[in-house]
C-alpha cells in the first residue's frame, strides 16, 4: 500500500527526532497518523567518542566526506532539436556580442542532418493522415 508521508524540517524537528505525518491519500476519509522518527546514526559518527561530539562536528564530518560520498554528475547537454533551433532561429535575434555563447554555437553536421530528417519524416506523416 502506498502512503503519503510529510515532514517539514523546521516544524517537525525536535533535536534528532522528526514527527512524520503518514496517510493513505489526501482524501478526507483517510486520517493523518503522526509517527516519531528518530535519527540514530549517520556517516562519521563512529569517529567520535560520544554522539554529542559527533553532532557538534557534523559540519566538519560532512565536509570531509564530501569528496568520498558525492560524485560529480555530468549534465546531459541540450536536446539536439533545441541546439538546432537556438542556432538557426534565435542566434540571429540576439545581439552580436552574445554570439560566442556556447548556447548558440553551430551544431555538428550530423546533428543538423538528423533534425532535418526528423522534420521531413514528421511532415510526410502529417500529410498521410
Overview of this protein structure:
With 129 residues, this protein is α+β, with helices and mostly antiparallel strands. It contains 5 helices and 4 strands. The chain has helices at 9-12, 51-56, 58-69, 80-90, 109-128, and strands at residues 4-6, 13-14, 17-23, 33-38. The relative contact order is 0.07.
Low-confidence stretches: none
- Which class of secondary structure composition applies to the elements? alpha+beta
Q: How widely separated are the two ends?
A: 44 Å
> Beta fraction of the residues?
5-15%
Briefly say what this structure is:
Helices cover 41% and strands 14% of the residues. By secondary structure, the chain is of the alpha+beta class.
Throw out a few tags for this protein.
129 residues
Strands, helices and their partners?
Layout: E1 4-6, H1 9-12, E2 13-14, E3 17-23, E4 33-38, H2 51-56, H3 58-69, H4 80-90, H5 109-128
Antiparallel strand pairs: 1-3, 2-3, 3-4
Amino acid at each position: 500500500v502506498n502512503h503519503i508521508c510529510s515532514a517539514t524540517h523546521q516544524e517537525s524537528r525536535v533535536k534528532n527526532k522528526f514527527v512524520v505525518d503518514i496517510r493513505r491519500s489526501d482524501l478526507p476519509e483517510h486520517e493523518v497518523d503522526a509517527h516519531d522518527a528518530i535519527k540514530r546514526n549517520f556517516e562519521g559518527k563512529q569517529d567520535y567518542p560520544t554522539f554529542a561530539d559527533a553532532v557538534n562536528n557534523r559540519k566538519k564530518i560532512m565536509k570531509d566526506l564530501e569528496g568520498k560520498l558525492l560524485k560529480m554528475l555530468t549534465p546531459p547537454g541540450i536536446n539536439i532539436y533545441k541546439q538546432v533551433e537556438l542556432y538557426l532561429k534565435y542566434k540571429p535575434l540576439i545581439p552580436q556580442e552574445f554570439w560566442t555563447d556556447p548556447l548558440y554555437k553551430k551544431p555538428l553536421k550530423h546533428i543538423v542532418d538528423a533534425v532535418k530528417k526528423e522534420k521531413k519524416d514528421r511532415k510526410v506523416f502529417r500529410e498521410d493522415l
